[in-house]
Specification:
single chain; alpha+beta; elongated; five-stranded antiparallel sheet
């Protein structure tokens, strides 16, 4: 379908509007994303830090409350005087211990359970723990020697070796705990009393559900975010993905964060650009990590940008249509007049003229057209007269032309005359000259087999060797497979002539011309080398790329490239005093 100039002009207007709109929209989107991302990064980082501060405050209270038990008078008395073998005393002591622990920890809504463990009894809230003194929690508390130890989230059944609970729906399946060894003391009348040496020191165990941390983060970070709380060994204390809780989470990007205390950065995780904010608890040493997809931050912004750009594009498109309609009319009307006039000229009416109606570029174009039309009319008239004169000259030239057959007959008579007078060398020269004339006077100038070219070169070398009195010799080294391949006519002659006339002009004898040919892959190579006086690099460049006296060489280069393409041609290497080498490359 033919597209008129008016429609192309209209399309160009719309395109000129569309491109800036797209660029501005992209810049607006990127700028908005950058601003929102930076602000979100600051906000989320502050949320992570505040959450850690809130949690640290709660955990410090637990630490302080547990430390207060060291000086508890009732606990000191109970454990220092308790007889583990007396079951009645144990149950009575359990009621008293539970009351003390309840008074200390029951106000903290985050605590799930508080207990005192000994090898003979578990005091406090009852849980199906079996023998808690066989757990890692008990072992770590005793190793810490009174220091509070925070145990990251664990599976209850595995920690206390209760396999029968594995399949159950426990509300306390995942817990994290704080534990410490309690060595009670009592201050009486300014005297510090310590527990007897033989009395077993109990271990305090305070347990929290993992949902405590989950509720802290789930309500404070954006919905598309994910979070994770890790201990220094990459064990998951809490996570937005429940399947990761109590597991070890090893990722290279987390290793970078573990080496720092706090910060925020932009990263790419699983091909998705995210903002990562992290902070480490001063109480537990656990690291809280929150990451948010950048795309989710601007998901609500994209429709606004799309609507704005679409509305602007519609308005600008209507404006473009109106402008294009009037401007196209101003442009296409004079063009149509010129086209109509050109159609008349094309049909042979050189008297056609177009009225000049303005002084702008179209008026100048119309004036130029009228002037050009006058000039064409004059040239056509002159050309017609010249053609008549050329026809007359051609007829005269044909009448005076000498037929080449006359030259062959004349050379033949001269050859027999030389034979009759015993001039064998002259006879051979005449035969060579006749062959050369026949080779070069063919009506067509097509490529010829290499064998014919080499035959012509033999005649040429014979005549030139007689002329220059054996100043040079010729050596051949030609791959037999090349003989039936065609080459441009007189391919070697300009280079051989250049070697004889210029390369050996200062040589009395000993000149050597080598003609080689070989095949390399899909390329034929022909080489003409001499041991003459050589040329400078400037002379080689002038012969190959500039106008010079070597018309035959330049003509040969042009013929090769026009016939076979620009990747084929001639290269010349020459060193003054050592000779010249010409390599011709042709396709196989």
């Amino acid at each position: 379908m033919k597209i008129t100039f008016r429609y192309r002009l209209l399309a160009s207007y719309i395109l000129l509007i569309a491109i800036p709109l797209l660029v501005l929209g992209a810049l607006f989107y990127r700028t908005s994303l950058k601003i929102i991302t930076e602000q979100a990064q600051k906000n989320v980082y502050e949320i992570v830090r505040k959450n850690n501060e809130v949690m640290d405050t709660k955990l410090r209270i637990v630490d302080q409350n547990s430390m207060s038990l060291f000086l508890d008078k009732d606990l000191f008395r109970i454990f220092n005087q308790l007889d583990p073998a007396n079951e009645a005393e144990l149950f009575a002591a359990d009621r008293q211990v539970t009351a003390v622990l309840s008074k200390t920890f029951s106000q903290n809504q985050d605590i799930f359970a508080y207990q005192l463990w000994t090898s003979y009894f578990t005091f406090g809230q009852p849980l199906p723990q079996g023998e808690p003194t066989q757990s890692d929690i008990y072992r770590m508390a005793r190793q810490a020697g009174g220091k509070l130890v925070w145990i990251p989230t664990y599976e209850f059944a595995s920690m206390f070796n209760q396999p029968y609970l594995q399949g159950g729906n426990l509300e306390f399946r995942y817990l994290f705990s704080a534990t410490r060894l309690l060595d009670f003391t009592y201050l009486s009348n300014t005297k510090l009393a310590k527990m007897d040496a033989g009395v077993e020191r109990p271990v305090l165990a305070i347990s929290f559900k993992s949902e405590v941390l989950k509720s802290l983060y789930a309500d404070s970070i954006p919905g598309s975010s994910r979070y994770m709380v890790l201990d220094p060994q990459d064990k998951v204390v809490a996570s937005s993905e429940p399947g990761n809780v109590a597991q070890t989470y090893k990722e290279a990007w987390l290793n970078e964060l573990q080496r720092e205390k706090s910060g925020a950065r932009r990263m790419t995780l699983n091909g998705e650009a995210v903002i990562v904010c992290f902070d480490r608890s001063e109480v537990t040493g656990w690291m809280s990590v929150v990451w948010i997809p950048e795309a989710g931050l601007v998901s609500s912004l994209v429709p606004v940008i799309r609507t704005s750009i679409t509305a602007l594009a519609v308005v600008m498109g209507i404006v473009a249509l109106i402008f294009a309609y009037f401007i196209a009319g101003k442009i296409t009307k004079p063009i149509k007049r010129l086209l109509s006039a050109m159609r008349s000229v094309g049909e042979g009416d050189f008297q056609t003229r177009v009225d000049v109606v303005s002084n702008d570029e179209f008026g100048m174009l119309t004036q130029r057209f009228n002037r050009m039309n006058d000039r064409i009319h004059l040239l056509v008239t002159e050309n017609y007269e010249i053609k008549l004169k050329e026809k007359e000259a051609e007829i005269q030239a044909l009448n005076m032309q000498m037929h080449p057959h006359f030259l062959y007959n004349t050379l033949n008579v001269m050859n027999w005359t030389a034979i009759e007078n015993d001039q064998q060398e002259l006879s051979r020269m005449l035969v060579c000259l006749s062959n050369m004339l026949h080779y070069t006077s063919r009506k067509t100038w097509d490529a010829v087999p290499l064998s014919e070219e080499m035959s012509w070169m033999s005649n040429y070398f014979y005549i030139m060797s007689i002329r220059f009195e054996d100043k040079f010799t010729v050596e051949y080294d030609m791959d037999p497979r090349l003989m039936e391949h065609e080459v441009p006519r007189l391919l070697f002659q300009p280079f051989v002539e250049n070697a004889i006339l210029h390369g050996f002009d200062q040589t009395g004898s000993g000149g050597l011309i080598g003609i080689r040919g070989w095949i390399n892959g899909r390329t034929r190579h022909y080489e003409v080398a001499d041991n003459g006086r050589g040329m400078s690099a400037e002379t080689v460049q002038r012969i190959l790329y500039q106008k010079s006296s070597s018309v035959g060489i330049k003509n040969t280069i042009d013929r090769i490239q026009m016939t076979y393409g620009g990747e084929y041609g001639i290269s010349i290497s020459s060193t003054p005093g050592t000779g010249t080498k010409v390599v011709i490359a042709l396709p196989l």
